[in-house]
Specification:
The protein is an alpha+beta fold. The chain is about 25% helix and about 35% strand. The strands form two sheets. Strands 5, 6, 7, 8 and 9 form a five-stranded mixed β-sheet that branches. The model has no long low-confidence stretch (mean pLDDT about 95).
């Protein structure tokens, strides 16, 4: 049976923290996410309509093959904010320059666990 009335309302991936759960938590707070809930080994983060669950999980091979794409309104302002907050220096993460891709302008961040976050603006 095909039912077109079913609505999917959100997608909230479980993101691995890597070895240092507290560092990962502080990294996402520095990016501007807020904590909706915290039950120890799982933390619900949100910024605007973007949500994810930080999981206390450390499997390097998994994290380094996990990617998330986040649409942002202004990629240039986001890049300036990252520089102002010294995110790369404070957390030892890699941040790319803004690159033009077929789907928009993109800046990548490799988070403390090794997950690649693609921040994209049209």
């Amino acid at each position: 049976m095909h039912n077109n009335t079913i609505q999917f309302l959100s997608l909230e991936p479980f993101v691995p923290s890597g070895a240092d759960f507290n560092k990962a938590k502080n990294f996402f707070l520095a990016l501007g996410f807020t904590i909706n809930w915290d039950v120890g080994d799982y933390i619900g983060f949100q910024k605007n309509e973007c949500r994810f669950i930080l999981q206390h999980y450390d499997k390097k091979e998994f994290a380094e093959n996990f990617m998330i794409s986040v649409k942002v309104a202004d990629i240039d302002a986001f890049e300036l904010e990252l520089q102002h907050k010294q995110i790369a220096e404070n957390f030892g993460v890699k941040i790319s320059k803004i690159l033009q891709q077929p789907y928009g302008r993109e800046l990548n961040i490799i988070d403390p666990a090794g997950v690649c976050w693609h921040f994209v603006a049209q």
